[in-house]
């Protein structure tokens, strides 16, 4: 189970830059793009098992230094972009650590098997009755 999103704040680094997103002239003078960096190996909130799972599942999203990098530039506001980046970060962790429920193998019931065989027999009889009739 993951700790709450705000517990990760001390372990996150934020960097801002000029956005290429919406904002008109605002884009040229305000640093609204937010880049979130999280050093997976240095985290004190995650267990070793969780770290290994994240390293495997998020390998394509990690930098060579082992940092998870998430950028947000959807909004004109730096604060909202920071919130978006935090939400993306937490969703990424949750999705990577989610364990799918194990599937239990089951057998069809006797009634279902009987019904299927009766249906096949009926269909075969119908096809067998087709064709030429000799007088």
Automatic annotation (TrEMBL):
Biased composition (Polar residues): 13-29
Alphabetically ordered keywords of this record: Hydrolase
GO molecular-function term, one example from the UniProt record: hydrolase activity
Span list, region Disordered: 1-29, 97-135
rRNA processing found in the keyword field: no
Feature: compositional bias, Basic residues: 97-107
Superkingdom in the source lineage: Bacteria
Annotated Prokaryotic-type class I peptide chain release factors domain residues: 11-130
Compositional bias of kind Basic and acidic residues: 126-135
InterPro entries: Pep_chain_release_fac_I
Keyword Transmembrane helix: no
Protein name: Aminoacyl-tRNA hydrolase
